[in-house]
Amino acid sequence: MASHDGDNVFNDEWPPPPEAVRSVRWPSTTGPVVALLSHLSAPYWETGPSPGDEKDLQRVAYRYLRAACDLNLFELEDAWLPALDPDAAELDIHFGWMPIGDRRDSEIQVPLASLDASDDGDKLVVLFAAQRIGDRFLGSEFGLRVALRWRPFGAQKFLFSITGASATLPFGPYKEHPARISASEIEAYQKLLFDPENNERMADLSGLRRESIRLRGVRISLKDGMARVERKGVGSRRDAHGVDLPYAVSTITVGKVDKVAGEADTDHLQHRSLFIADAKGRADVFLATPAPNRDCRPRRDEGKLRPDRRSVQIEPNANTATLADSHLQVLPSKRFVLADKNAATPLQVPTPGTAGKPPVRGNVASAIQSFWHARDLVRRMEAYHLDPDTYFQLIHPVIDIAYRSGVSPGPGKDGQSVNARVQPKGWPPDFMGPIKKDELPVVQLHLSLADRARRERNVQTPGGPRQPALPMGIGADPRWMWHEFGHLLTLASTGELELRFAHSPGDALAAIVGDPELKLGAHQGKWRGATFPWVFLPRRHDRCVLHGWSWCGSLHRQLAESDANLHPRRKGYQSEQILSTSLFRIYRCIGGDTRDAGNPVAATEKRLEASHYTCFLVMKALQILGDAQTTPSQMPDQYEQALFDADLYLANWNISYRADTAAAKPYARVGGCTTKVIRWCFEAQGLHAPGTTNDFDCPGAPEPVDIFVKSRRPDTDPGMDGLVSYGPGSYVPVSLHWKTHPAEPESEWQADPADGIIWDQGAGQITVKVGNRGTSPARGVTVSAWAIAWPANAPAPAWKKGGGGAWARLSPYTSAPDDIGPRQSKDFGPFDLTPLPSGRHIIMAASTCPGDRPYIELPTHAPSFTDCRLVDLVAGDNNLGLLVIDIP
């Protein structure tokens, strides 16, 4: 049943069962209170006509939030909810929805705005609401985020759906609304908060150049006639070499309301820190990090390194190449490269072809490889339908690459370090409001050396030009470059170079991009887990949760519990390894561990597909997070939720990409087949820790109800030394191949024939055993089953939406309902196979209950309304089981 209101039809499954809802709050005395609501198995949906404008979308989000608050599932500030009603008689001047900024506009960018993140097919808008005074949003970091999707649904109708929301709520002195003012006072308060004189005082307090200070956000609280104003901004200081170093800065002003903007003696500096982050002719580049082995370092001689490079097309001209693209350019290195003294921007380099390919150690090779890997990022974004012009919402759309550079401050400023850095330069006059695209800050990628121990030098001739030593640039290592791209993408999406719960997703991107074609293959020793095998940087993406690498454990706790302004930097690197292990596990679960001795090429393509899709999820989720001045993501749970939204966004994800040849290859997946995998991958790394123990160096807790059909997967992960037992029903990564020959290994993603789907050949029946991983009883569990013929030498059939096409539903149509207790299992059936003819068949069983429904039932998940490959569907949803049988 469903309720109606004019043209709209509403989901009557709300209120959802408690076991299908995750509602949490993280209280804090030194930062915003974080509230998160998630209900993937019980989505909020409604149908209605096509939205005429953004107010129609705001109405859907408002109805959802009102329902969630009325059910006590989500708690907002008292004044926030009525302020979000688009049809309210009077506009609230203190809080409200941010307008949807048209970031495709060629002139104007709107940082503090809601985000239209839609592709041509599926629609996604991320609605933000925040504190404001009049038409000026404060950037106070107090606000909320709702991701809303919609798609065609029947004649002249659309299905709108939401699976969660998050909010950052005021704390401490900011708990009350900053200023309840009248409309007549708006102009005076805006002047109080945003007067340019405030920037000058911020510069004086922080020791930064006055002309460089730009305001990013304001918080204000009032008590007993006294105002407390916290201003956050950015600025720069010039070093001895004339390099402008960017800083983040915040100040506190306390005083009488009408005097606070003018009493300098009430000001003090709260925080200052560097706003930087470390870590078409033919040419030869390293497309992947050279295969690690005992002689893996970049100090190897030319003869050993040269075979690892591949010839690629830079420009049609065979003699020279201009190292520039629509979104990036390589700068001449006038401080460190003698030949660049009079070079123009962008840099041009010779590309002499195979006979005279540039040496591995040399400036030309360093420049070309830096450009190639940066262009790989841009091309991937375009292939993933992540338009850089839209994605780069907070930075200039053209990235500057300093291929040989000093890394300042510190000992690396002389260019003699193994390091790299992302650094923004040139902030707009007003970083808080609508600004022109050409005023957005330019991001510079500064690259130093891959190795300090070995260099080459051309022969010096008497009276000839000077022949300086030629090192290898760090741009030769694609993994290091991808780490820096993680900072770049984070800055472009959130306005900050680092995530607040981890250093960045760069380590994860490096590992996921570098793994599919790694010569070692899956499960080949500990080298696979070394994130940067080419340089001495002991960071890994296979960290064991039992050893403290847990989202709720000892190595992350100090970062999680400290003020955002005081995050210990080294702890950020430790938390980055927790993040990279979580994200790399997603890649492994959806195909990254695929191996097939009978068809190794197909196995590699499956790994590449998994790599591309996981990279898309990582990038799209960053975009969904939005500007940190509106709703900063303090917890990994918020990024996990953004990953859910990224997976649900595109029903059909189809791309065509190949980095090293002109002939691109297609890759495809159906969206919405990965949300449960994402949840488990973070759970396996300690997120969602149970509240019954003080030892959180262990996997987190499953959903309260998590029913499953047991697969052949092991209970432990061999790829992580098998130290952690996850129990049955988990998503332990396995090879996603089909067993088509007796000599091939079993397809472990398929059902356990003894304890999952049990075939009684003599009786012509199957029985389905369903377990419950959860901590609460699973009420009203039912099972349905289907069968389809799979002739010899035919490709595996796809799942047809609703079990249509050649799929035959087995009898009974649905089993009798039953309850399953925590950590228990029960048999359902038997289901009759006697109508099936002789030959090979695929049997699929689906278990469901109100607290945990399979993808094929959820209107928010594409497998419920589109066809889907069986391997992606079944391997990504433990509610489903698949068994291949041969009926005599």
Description:
Helix 8 (478-494) runs parallel beside helix 12 (600-625), helix 9 packs parallel to helix 11 (569-592) and helix 13 (636-649) runs antiparallel to helix 14. The chain has 888 residues and is an alpha+beta fold. The longest helix has 26 residues, at 600-625. It contains 15 helices and 41 strands. A hairpin with a 2-residue loop joins strand 10 (123-133) and strand 11 (136-137).
Structural class: alpha+beta
Residue ranges: pLDDT <50 for 5 or more in a row? none
Mean pLDDT: 84
Integer-rounded radius of gyration? 28 Å
Which term fits the overall shape? globular
Percentage of β-strand residues = 25-35%
Alpha carbon gap, first and last residue: 45 Å
Q: Say how many strands there are.
A: 41
Structurally, the number of domains stands at 5
Helix content: 10-25%
Q: What profile does the largest beta sheet have?
A: 13 strands, mixed
Count up the helices: 15
Briefly say what this structure is.
The chain has 888 residues and is of the alpha+beta class. 21% of the residues lie in helices and 25% in strands.
Task: Give a topology summary.
Blueprint: E1 2-5, E2 8-11, E3 22-26, E4 33-38, E5 44-48, H1 54-70, H2 80-83, E6 95-97, E7 100-101, E8 108-109, E9 114-116, E10 123-133, E11 136-137, E12 143-152, E13 158-162, E14 164-169, H3 186-194, H4 196-206, E15 214-223, E16 226-238, E17 244-256, E18 267-274, E19 282-285, H5 302-305, E20 310-313, E21 320-322, E22 324-325, E23 328-331, E24 348-350, H6 363-383, H7 388-391, E25 399-402, E26 420-425, E27 435-436, E28 442-447, H8 478-494, H9 506-514, H10 554-561, H11 569-592, H12 600-625, H13 636-649, E29 652-657, E30 665-670, H14 675-684, E31 707-709, E32 757-760, E33 765-772, E34 778-789, E35 798-799, E36 808-809, E37 818-820, E38 825-832, E39 839-848, E40 868-869, H15 870-875, E41 880-887
Parallel strand pairs: 7-9, 23-25, 25-28
Antiparallel strand pairs: 1-2, 2-5, 3-4, 4-14, 5-13, 6-10, 8-27, 9-10, 10-11, 10-12, 12-13, 12-14, 15-16, 16-17, 17-18, 19-20, 21-24, 22-23, 26-28, 29-30, 31-33, 32-33, 33-38, 34-36, 34-37, 34-39, 35-40, 39-41
